[in-house]
Amino acid sequence: MQPIGPAGQGFNLTRPSASLVHANGMVTLIEGQTFQLSDRAGDMYPEHSHGLLMFDTRVLSRWQMTVNGSGLEPLVVEVSEPFAAQMVSVVRLDGEGADAHLVVRRHRQLSRGMRERITISNHHLEPQSVVAVIDCDVDFVTLFDVKAHRIPRLIGRHVHELTDRALVFGYQDAHRDTEVVISADDTATLLPGRLCWQATIEPGDEIELTVEVAVVLSGTMVEPIFNGAARPHGPRQRLERWFATIPRVQTDSVSLSAVIARSASDLGALRIHDPDHPDLPILAAGAPWFMTLFGRDSLLTAWMTLIADPSIAHGVLETLARFQGEEVNATTEEEPGKILHEIRFGHADALALGGGERYYGSVDATPLFVMMVAELARWNVNDELTARLLPHVDRALAWIEDCGDRDGDGFVEYERLNPDGLINQGWKDSWDAIRHADGSLARGPIALCEVQGYVYAAYRARAALAKITGEGDVERYQARADDLQRRFNEAFWVDGLGTYALALDGDKRPVASVASNVGHCLWTGIVDDDRAPSVIAHLLSDEVFTGFGVRTLSAAMPFYNPVSYHNGSVWPHDNAICAAGLARYGERDGANRIIAAQLDVARAMGYRLPELFAGFDRDHLGVPAPYPSSCSPQAWAAASPLLWLRVMLGLDPASSDDEVWLDPHLPAGINRLAVSGISIAGRQFSVDVSDGAVEIGGLDGIEVHRCARPRR
């Protein structure tokens, strides 16, 4: 989506436009669980992280075009939609100088397969004889092998066939029976691993070549949906419906307009569906490597997107409830009531951690699930949905109090059951993320500070659900929340630090490292009021706040590394949650300082926030430095600006009580913010903040409190 007009003219989020060309020259296209990565000319090489992937398997590993034996020189890439691109290149013929006379346009579209329409134009004064060739191959390796730049030798049966009109590559083993069918137009000559066209192009004329790639799974063709130009195909229709339903934003900040628009476009691209329930939209975690449902990621993203589309939260909750743990399984780390960490839909089984279709090694997805059920009810009461989810909520709470509390101390901990599973099972899940202040790795079972905050909020959420439904003891759940808050503030507070420990280790020793996790504790409200100012001061200190955002780890820690995954980098979703946490405790200026810094990052990165970026200090490096393998787009990074909107508006609904709290506070330099089409209690309402004045429309019958919502 592109900003239009000068500052003050506003922005409408209904026109899709999404650039998926990264700084390293990689082009990414996404459509559901189909995606491709290529260079800027459109070529794919197996030795790079390139290819066409479906169901987490690489179904094109080589796709290399030459004209008269010469490679393509890329000029420009236009990605007008997440699933379609035009790559424009030139071909330099023998003897040509600076000017090339053959222009190649590759129009590529994904939709459960790939179609490429190629035009070659002759701008020479003489006719040109051309031989266009596409060399192709399929290695059938998994996306994890592609990401790691490795090509293992598969031990199954490979088949390469040449039919009258198609090249067929096949692979079969105990898990997969897959064929890739590459077909071309009638002018093509098909050779093993090669498509070839020969033609003479007159001056000022062009030729058009067409090729399609389809996949056959276990003998059944996965039919692509490539309709003619007269009507849009499935992916475009879904994207247009998404843009038609989300709120519209107008502001005098062109940068804010652009980043919100880019977020909307990226979230539309990341929406996928459970094949068994195509009516329920859910969110993939990120492109290109995590185009599947992750419990924690999808729940936090759904929370952030409530202001835009509550149906995403609906789909995420229903899907996670359907796969809630039933039994104890050490291989997948499944336990009764537990919410999964990841699932691989359809034909991508055996790719999840643990080697199966599902993996449950997440300590925080379960309390986040409970929080999300109550939060969705606060935005739009749906008695039938709440009643359907309430048994799953109670099973989740049972897990929290049983399997989740591994040593019976009243805190929720994790310790992996599968030696091949995740060592760390919070959102900072890299192997070295949880260290003591001296750099030594914390020994499990580990109780993370933010997880206790999530559990506290889960108890409060269940109390709220009891009020809404009449099912459950409100005072009982509130008492459990209060007791946990008291014990947390006793066990996790470190006097010498003036903030909370990152975690408690297996010996109940505080992991006294200063990290961003405490911002999540502010967000959930578990922090005692008298300790909040000290916690906030740490988050905004020079050691933690880079000028571009809150670091995952303080630069004062001996194991700080600005280009590590979790020990000094900056994550936009983490910062959005920190900003919401500061706002919850009344520190609106600090929250806006974080938002303004992240807005600068978005501006520097083409208005798309990456999964993470390096944690260099802004005084030392004036531009944000990318993290090498960051996902982009990534769901909770794309959703973070939507949480900014909620923080800036001070928006907190309670639809079951027909109440809304609204307390706008805009960052310096933004004088107007108008958001219309927000859905609360089944109503579409608008908020227009301009030079301190606030206008509200569409909330007839709803009591609007022009102040911050009480924290307790």
Show the helix and strand layout.
Elements lengths: L26 E5 L2 E5 L12 E4 L2 E4 L1 E6 L2 E2 L1 E9 L2 E8 L10 E9 L3 E9 L5 E10 L5 H5 L9 E6 L3 E7 L4 E8 L4 E3 L2 E8 L4 E12 L2 E3 L11 H12 L2 E4 L2 H17 E4 L2 E7 L9 E2 H10 L5 H13 L19 E2 L14 E2 L5 H15 L3 H19 L45 E2 H21 L4 H18 L1 E2 L4 E2 L2 E2 L5 E2 L5 H8 L7 H8 L32 H13 L3 H17 L30 H15 L2 E3 L4 E3 L10 E9 L2 E8 L2 E5 L5 E3 L7
Parallel strand pairs: 31-35
Antiparallel strand pairs: 1-2, 2-3, 3-4, 5-6, 5-11, 7-8, 8-9, 9-10, 10-17, 11-16, 12-13, 13-14, 14-17, 15-16, 17-18, 19-32, 20-21, 22-23, 23-24, 25-28, 26-27, 28-29, 30-31, 32-33, 33-34
Helix pairs in contact: 2-3, 3-13, 3-14, 4-5, 4-6, 4-14, 5-6, 6-7, 6-8, 7-8, 8-9, 8-10, 10-12, 12-13, 12-14, 13-14
Care to give the gist of this entry?
The chain has 712 residues and is α+β, with helices and mostly antiparallel strands.
CATH architecture title of the largest domain: Alpha/alpha barrel
> Could you describe the largest sheet, including whether it forms a barrel?
9 strands, antiparallel
Strand content: 25-35%
Mean pLDDT score, rounded?
A: 88
- Which class of the largest domain in CATH terms? Mainly Alpha
Tally of distinct domains: 3
